[in-house]
Amino acid sequence: MSNLEVKQINRFFMMALAPFIGLLLGLLLFNRPVPATSPSADYTPDRSLTAESESVLQKLDEAELLAESTISKIQKTAALYKQTTGVMRDIEKTATAQSARPGIIYNRRITAKLGIPFQTINSDRITIELYKVNPGVYHGYAMKVKLKDPSAMQMSLGSGQPGSAETTLRAVQRTGAAAGINAGGFADSGGRRYPLSTTVLDGKYINGFQASYKDLAFVGLNENGKLIGGKFFSQSALDKLKPVFGATFVPVLLQNGQKVAIPSKWQVSPARAPRTVIGNYKDDQLLIIVVEGYNENGSSGATLQELQNKMYVLGIQNAYNLDGGGSSSLVVGGRVINKPSDGNLRPVPTHFLFYK
User: What Pfam families would the database entry show (predicted)?
Assistant: First the structure.
């Protein structure tokens, strides 16, 4: 065999065995053990992961116990607050009831002297109670009024203009009032009817201020819903009382719970007559008495002394006589309660009106 042939045979076997030799070398290289690496010298944990987890869990347990304790304290505080609030409300209710009790007792006392009302109007603004007055010598009606809102009582001026006049029934119907009475006196001139002397409407003087003369007295309501009245000789004196409305007639019957001397002229001119008087109790409730009579010649109705005594016995503090005779009128619920001496209601320039 020649040298050339030997070389060809060797090349053949090398090429045939090459894949197997490559595979063997690859297995030897990938199966070499990987040398272990030592931890970095910069990282040295102070506790194991298990110990750290246990610490975290322990802190969570402590937080849960603290939360439960806090919630329990809040619940106890809330319960105590609720209990305290309830007690305070009870105390407030009791105090309110106790503070109202003297007023209730006083109202019962004054009402007992009037009897039993035969008609009542009650709203959140006003309470009106109607009673019969019949002492034997005269007869009429009493109207007790409690103003819960000062604006529940107002005054009308005729049909809205000075010099005009209308009946109390018409004034009640026109304005939608629940009740009404005639108010001050008047003077006729040129076929028109004007309010007498000082008259105030909506806080303004109609035809200016006139000092009291011939025993004339002003009576009206102030901005607090309190009855004011008396003789006034200067506008500043009346202004101090802050009148919202008011009219004038004669005379004053009671002041500060005391009787005022009635001028001799008014004791006999006329002696008896239909009358309208207005006054106030200590608690500022109003009392109006309207006495009936069949004429104005002095033979029917009541005397001023009789009404003065009546108001005094009933506990009225301040009382004033309003226009009387054929002017006396009492309208409640759209109905004329008294019997006017003229046979019909007389048109007058001023009326005191009461609203629900």
Answer: NAGPA
Element (H or E) spanning 304, and its range?
A: helix 304-313
CB-based contact 182:329 (threshold 8 Å): yes
**Helix, coil or strand: residue 326:** helix
Phi, psi angle pair for 101, to nearest 5°: -60, -45
Query: pLDDT digits over 38-82, tens only?
Result: 444 454 555 565 666 677 667 767 766 776 777 777 777 777 767
C-beta of residue 314 within 8 angstroms of C-beta of residue 294: no
- Collapsing DSSP to helix, strand or coil, 288 comes out as strand
For 40, 41, 43, 50, 54, the CA distances from 46, given in Å and listed in that order, are: 15, 14, 10, 12, 14
Concatenating the DSSP letter of every residue in 153-213 gives: EEEEETTSSTT--B-HHHHHHHHT-SEEEE-S-EEEETTEEEE-S-EEETTEEET------
- Would you state the structure tokens that stand for residue 58, as one six-digit string? 């322990």
Tell me whether the omega of the peptide bond preceding residue 251 falls within 30 degrees of 0, making it cis: yes
Query: In 3D, which of 261, 303, 311 has the Cα closest to residue 286?
Result: 311
Name the phi and psi angles at 142, rounded to 5.
Answer: -115, 135
Half-sphere exposure of 219 (CA within 13 A, CB side): 32
- What are 171's two structure tokens? 């004034």
Q: What percentage of residues in the chain have a pLDDT greater than 90?
A: 68
Which neighbouring-strand residues pair with 182? 351
Between CA 51 and CA 174 the distance in angstroms is: 94
Helices (H) and strands (E) in the chain, counts: 6, 20
With tokens 């006034």, the residue in question is 232
pLDDT, tens digit (0-9, with 9 covering 90-100), for 165-219: 999 999 999 999 999 999 999 999 999 999 999 999 999 999 999 999 999 999 9
Q: Is 207 left (phi over 0), alpha (psi -120 to 50) or beta?
A: left
Please state whether 343 falls in left (phi above 0), alpha (psi between -120 and 50) or beta.
left
User: Length of the chain, please?
Assistant: 356
Residue with structure tokens 């610490």?
Answer: 55
